[in-house]
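This section describes the prediction task in plain terms. A model, or a person checking by hand, is given the sequence of a single protein chain and must write out its three-dimensional structure as a string of C-alpha cells. No templates, partner chains or ligands are provided. The sample shown here is typical of the held-out split.
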Amino acid sequence: MGLIPYSKQSIGEEDLLAVERMMKDDFLTQGPQVSEFEKDLAGWFGVKQAVACSSGTAALHLAYSSLGIDENSIGIVPAVTFSATANALKYQGAKPIFCDVDPESGLIDLESVEEILNNLNPNQKRSKNLIVPVSLTGSVAPLKGCRILADKHEFCVVEDASHSPGAWREESDGNKIKSASGEWSDASTLSFHPVKHVCCGEGGAILTNSAEIRKHAVKLRSHGIQRPFGPEHETPWAYEQDELGWNYRLSDIHAALGRSQLKCLKNSLLKRREIAARYRELLGKKPFSSHFGLPNEEKGHAWHLFVLRFRKPGRRDQAHKFLKERGIMTQVHYVPLYRHPYFEREMGKIRLPGAEKFFEGCLSIPLFPNLTKGEQDAVVNEIARFIEKG
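The expected answer:
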C-alpha cells in the first residue's frame, strides 16, 4: 500500500469533462462560469448572495473590507485557526485580538470573547469591529452566541466556514444552527483548496444575505473597478476605479470545476460521515481510549478533519513521526496563532489555556471521501502498533 495522505482532492470523470469543456470555450476567465457558480453556491447554501474569488484568504479579505474594517478596527479571532483568518485583518491594518478556544473541540470560547469585549475601551468600540468564529474541523462554531455578543457590543460577525460546508449543530432547544447560512453572521467565507469539500484547485467565496456586501466585494475583487455606464451610453466601454482593490478574480476554468464539485457535495458529506463513524467504532475502545480522545459525535458534523487528542504531552509528536515513517501522513491543526514569530513580535508571549490544551494533543489522521476501508484499516493498525510500542 502506498502513501496515505491526511487529505486530498476527489476528482471524478464529470469534473474532468467540465474542465475539458471549459478549455475549449471562448472565455477562460471573466466569462459566464463564475456568475453561474455564484448562483449555484447561493442556491446550495440558501443565501441571497455569493461572491466567488481566487482563494479562501481572498474571501476573508474581501469580506472584512466590504464591512468597513480598517486600521481603526479590531477583530476577535480564535487562537486555533489557520493564519489567513487573522492575516486578512492585518491586510486592512486592523488589530487581531486572540481569544481562547474550547480545549476539546478547538471552537471559539464565548466566555473568552465576552471577557475581551467587556475590557475594550470606549474608543475601540467606535470603529467597525469584528468577531470571527471559525467552524473548525467541520464542527459548527457557536454562531448564535457570537451573534448575541456582537449585537450587544455593535460588532459585525464573519464566520470562517472553510472547514464546514453542509455542517449544522443542534441547539438544546432543538433548533439547528447551520454553517454558512447567513442567519447568524454578516458573511461567511469558504475555501476551495484541494483538501476542502469543494475543490477548484484554488478558490474561495463569500456567502451573505447582504446585497451591499456583494456589490462592494465584486468591485474590490477586480482592482476596485466598476462599469457605471449602460450599453446605451455614448461610451459603453467606460469604466472607473473609485477605490483600491485587488486582482482576486476566479477564472472560469476554476469555476467550472467548482460547479461540478458542488453537485457532489452531498455525497461527499455522506462518505466523510461514514468514514468518521467507522473511525469512532474502531478507535473508540481500549486500548485506544486510554491514549487519546476522539472528536465529539455530532449528526451535522462535516468532517473536514478527524482529530485525535493525545492525553500525554509529547505523544502526539511521537505518533506523527511513527506514522510518517510507515507512509501515513498526519497533520496538526493548528499551531496557536500567537505562537508564530510574526504575531509574537507584535503581541509578546501569549498563552491561552484552552488553546494550549487543544494544541498539545491534536493530530489529524487521514480522512477524505476516496479513503478506502483498506487504507483506513492500515491507519488504525499502525496506530495500534504505535500504542503497543509504548
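For orientation: The domain at 265-389 is CATH 3.90.1150.10 (Aspartate Aminotransferase, domain 1).
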